[in-house]
Amino acid sequence: MRVLAPILCIDGMYSRYAAAESTEPELPMRIVISNASPDPIYEQILQQIRAQILSGELSEGDQLPSIRKLARDLQISVITTKRSYEELEREGFINTVGGKGTFVAAQNPEFLREKRMKAVEERLAEAVDQARLLNVGSDELAEMLRLLYAEDE
Amino acid sequence: MNRMNNALDIEGVCKRYEGFTLHDVSLQLPRGYIMGLIGPNGAGKTTLIKLMLNLIRRDGGAIRMFGLDNLEDEAEVKSRIGFVPDEPRYHPDASLSELASSVAPFYANWDDDRFRHLAGEFELPLKKRFKKLSHGMKTKFALAMALSHGAELVLLDEPTTGLDPVFRRRLLDMLAGLLQDERVSVLFSSHITADLERAADFVTFLKDGRLVFSSPMDQVAENWGVVKGGQEMLDAEAHAFLQGVRVRRHGFEGLTSRIDEARRRFGNGFVIERASLEDIMVLFGKEGSNHED
Amino acid sequence: MRTELLHRDMSLLRRDMILHWRVMVPSILFYAAFQGWIVREINNPTLWLVFICVYMTFLTVIPINVDDKAGTYAWSCTLPVTRADLVRGRYVTAWALLALMLTLSIALAALMPGSKLTAGTVLNPDGLLLVLGIATFLLAPLIPFTLKFGMMGVMLMLVFFQVLAAALFVFAKATGTRDAVEGGVAAPFRVIIAGVTALHDYLPYLVFLVVVLAALALVNALSYRFALAIFRRKEL
Fold first, then answer.
1. How far from each other are the two terminal CA atoms of chain C, in whole angstroms?
2. Which of B50, B89, B102 lies closest to C70 in CB terms?
3. Could you give the CA distance from residue C65 to residue C25 in angstroms, rounded to a whole number?
4. pTM over 0.90
5. Can you tell me the distance from the alpha carbon of B69 to that of B75, in angstroms, rounded to the nearest whole number?
6. B260 in contact with A, Cβ within 8 Å
7. DSSP B184
8. Is B118 left (phi over 0), alpha (psi -120 to 50) or beta?
9. pLDDT along chain B (293 residues), means of 10
């Protein structure tokens, strides 16, 4: 099992935060908080942990720092950190085991794919709405999508 | 919310002075969190903290700490409080180690090793007399005293005023360190709001002796905004909507506690941003009519 | 509960000693030298006891004065004690100082070569009662007064009495009523002394002792109540 410690980073300046009181070996968990970002801090934490779980950087059973420890290390409030963890828990990315800590949850690959497909669908639905407002037909939109795909390749 | 779980529960507290009144202030701080107390000088921050400690007599309302009445269980309540005053005053001719030793027996949980450790870290000259210290050193000494008896509620009244930015950061880190114990809470008054912006879980804003709000910092950050635009765009309707306006030669800045509605209401040409605590403190209640530069 | 109060009293006494030893120790040494000299010169035990009590009173107002001048009342009030504890602490310190002075003085009286007084002068029921009486007479008004008006108030009071005495003297001299004025000033004291003497002469000694001790306890209790009422109103 891996125990994760955050790397402190504020507005682009990195410094490895050594957690003196911990005895277990810790692996870095990169969280970058920007005061300039339009996203609230809890959202920034949420997105970054979620992305690291989805990308496989964090894997099942990895232990996350406690809410209070992460708050201290990132120099942010406890409530903010708590909110990120609660949201991650609701989304099924992490589990809190009472008295033991918070762990990355088992990720069912199909479930994960489904979840990500749903995100794609939502974005597309948004694009369709916008297209309708501009009287763009489905053919024209499909053509646009095809071009976008071609651009990336 | 279970009231026993509140480190601090203030209900309708009033204090009348000649020329200043603290009106009907209520707030709650749950155990395990940091609350920032902000407001311009003379807003009533120190008065509120003094009322908690029964340094002054209240004219109404009730204050409970850890579920105990602050007057009925005065000694018990105070044994669980660590207090850092804005202007620490101890016996001027006593040395720092004498001062520390003089209070130790009052606290069942006095931890002399911890005091020595903090004194070492803050580079406090323990043999020196109190009156020989600089203002910053006096505050550091008060801090070492407040953190050496296992206090469950740490009250800090403008502690950062005489401290350099490096130590201010260290102080915030120390407070976050205290919060690793979930029973410990902190109330921190400051007009240097940047200190509180990220560290505080709750923010209480006082102005002219009145409570403007006491709510989670996240909510403050999400709901309060600043609307900016040209002077000519500030019509009566906008004026009525905004909770404080500052007009300058090149445009106006207005404060709102409903940023989403402001986005709907004010369209092209307006700039709408999230408000910092400083924006709120400076703009709130400001009348736009008097021009200033 | 009772042991808790005693613990606070002792902690407050200890705190007074730690915070004020820099003034107390030299004062007590000076006092010892003074007493060493005076036991060779004086043969009036009453006067000797008055000296002890006045000196003790002087030391008692030092901590109150510092609290007042340096603004350290607020710190005292943030300690885990009540205002009642703090006021009681003033009396505890005063009586502890009296005990210390008395011990020191008696030792000096006994040991000093050429001393005209002996330990027995004070170490008898009447002598101790006299000490308690004089100390109460001085402390009972002084502690509430100092809490209310500070050291400045004490100074002003002393000046006021000086001026009053001078005025009375001038008045008596001008009108040729010196005897009447003197009699008037001394009258209350004479009445008290006569009363106590009468009690002493006509009551069985044990009853006399109980009555006087009860009266002194009552005066101290009233003084404490009064001081507490004053200190509770104090805004820090």
1. 28
2. B89
3. 17
4. no
5. 10
6. no
7. -
8. alpha
9. 78 92 94 92 92 93 93 94 93 94 94 94 94 92 94 92 85 89 92 82 93 92 88 81 86 88 82 89 76 46
